[in-house]
Design the sequence.
């Protein structure tokens, strides 16, 4: 046994042969931690992480839009796959930050967890990575330049791989306000540094839908790949649903829109059923950040939708006897966009795939329960069409279940006979 243990120990390559003392403990200074473990901050160093850098800078511009100070954002892929993001917001603060004694503009891009999103005074709601966005992009860029248009002057600061190469300098005068960020992703950090226009275009279109009235210009300036589109949707997420359903036959003409708020949180939901679709499409966002794995806001929607449709089916006499429809039946052919805004968003994972705030389940549930019931009462024809589609889905599921059981029984009997 002792020999076996000795052999196992030799095979275990994770063991170390030296003392574990204080000298083994590493303290990573400044943005060194980001370059050491980039996946912790942007998800991966593949193409998705590369595009995530752009989202972080755009999120900061969108935060200005949410705060009511910005209505125009330009995102450009430049000739060498560098990125330029420009907004007409207030501009990053340039005065001296008390804790560090340095200009706030330098602090925002060189210190993790530095930003206007912590104390509640700078932004009520925000979609950026809560103060790590700008500095993480800086750490993972070969070079970065930031110009701020503010107080009648143009302030400029330059960085390389997270380090300042030119301290904040006044380089001119201006009559506008806003922030311009240019950066070139570091090839040492990423598997690829070539941007895909369509990936960024899709994300910017989402942001334009989610922020009704904001104008976003997405442009590709690379020779031979020139493209640009100006996006501006006054109808917000209603137009988003119409866009998703553009190749489908709607079951009802108008998109159902519901919105409500409680304290500093708000939720808006837009939905429409299609005659010729049997799949559900639910696209959800929290503070303008796509939550592909759903979360509490989607749970609230699903629960309310099932309850309201079952209650309406009984009240309107559409159901016979004990008939009822399941959640899956209620969502067949549904296209829905949910957008929630809240002050302290809790995301599961640094890349924000799922929303964890339970109060958003309560808010969305309440909004849908109240507003959808009201809509169905005022539009009984639409209500009947939706319920009939759900009942048809229920009967098809039941028929499929019985068919499966019949086949299993026959297979079992056939096996027994042998």
Sequence:
């Amino acid at each position: 046994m002792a020999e076996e243990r000795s052999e196992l120990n030799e095979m275990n390559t994770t063991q170390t042969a030296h003392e574990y003392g204080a000298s083994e403990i590493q303290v990573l200074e400044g943005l060194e931690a980001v370059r050491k473990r980039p996946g912790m901050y942007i998800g991966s160093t593949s193409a998705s992480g590369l595009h995530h850098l752009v989202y972080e800078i755009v999120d900061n511009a969108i935060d200005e839009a949410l705060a009511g100070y910005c209505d125009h954002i330009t995102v450009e892929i430049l000739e060498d796959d560098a990125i330029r993001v420009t907004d007409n917001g207030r501009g990053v603060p340039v005065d001296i930050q008390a804790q560090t004694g340095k200009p706030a503009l330098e602090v925002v891009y060189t210190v993790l967890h530095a930003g206007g999103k912590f104390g509640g005074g700078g932004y009520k709601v925000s979609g950026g990575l809560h103060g790590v966005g700008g500095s993480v992009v800086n750490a993972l860029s070969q070079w970065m330049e930031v110009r701020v248009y503010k107080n009648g002057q143009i302030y400029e600061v330059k960085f390389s791989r997270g380090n300042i190469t030119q301290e904040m300098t006044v380089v001119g005068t201006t009559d506008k306000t806003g922030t311009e960020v240019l950066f070139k992703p570091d090839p040492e950090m990423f598997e690829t540094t070539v941007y895909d226009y369509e990936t960024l275009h899709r994300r910017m279109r989402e942001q334009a839908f989610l922020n009704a009235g904001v104008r976003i210009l997405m442009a590709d300036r690379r020779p031979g790949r020139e493209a640009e589109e100006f996006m501006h949707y006054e109808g917000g997420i209603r137009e988003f649903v119409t866009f998703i359903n553009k190749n489908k036959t709607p079951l009802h003409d108008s998109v159902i829109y519901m919105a409500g708020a409680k304290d500093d949180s708000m939720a808006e939901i837009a939905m429409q059923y299609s005659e010729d679709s049997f799949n559900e499409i639910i696209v959800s966002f929290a503070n303008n950040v796509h939550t592909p794995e759903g979360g509490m806001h989607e749970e609230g929607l699903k629960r309310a939708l099932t309850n309201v449709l079952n209650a309406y089916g009984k009240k309107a006499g559409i159901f016979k006897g004990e008939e009822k429809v399941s959640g899956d039946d209620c969502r067949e052919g549904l296209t829905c966009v949910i957008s929630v805004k809240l002050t302290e968003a809790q995301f599961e994972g640094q890349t924000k795939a799922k929303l964890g705030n339970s109060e958003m389940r309560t808010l969305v549930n309440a909004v849908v329960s109240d507003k959808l019931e009201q809509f169905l009462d005022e539009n009984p024809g639409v209500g009947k069409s939706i319920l009939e589609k759900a009942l048809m889905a229920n009967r098809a599921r039941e028929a499929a279940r019985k068919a499966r059981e019949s086949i299993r029984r026959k297979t079992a009997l056939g096996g027994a006979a042998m």
Q: What stands out?
A: DSSP finds twelve helices and 17 strands in the chain.
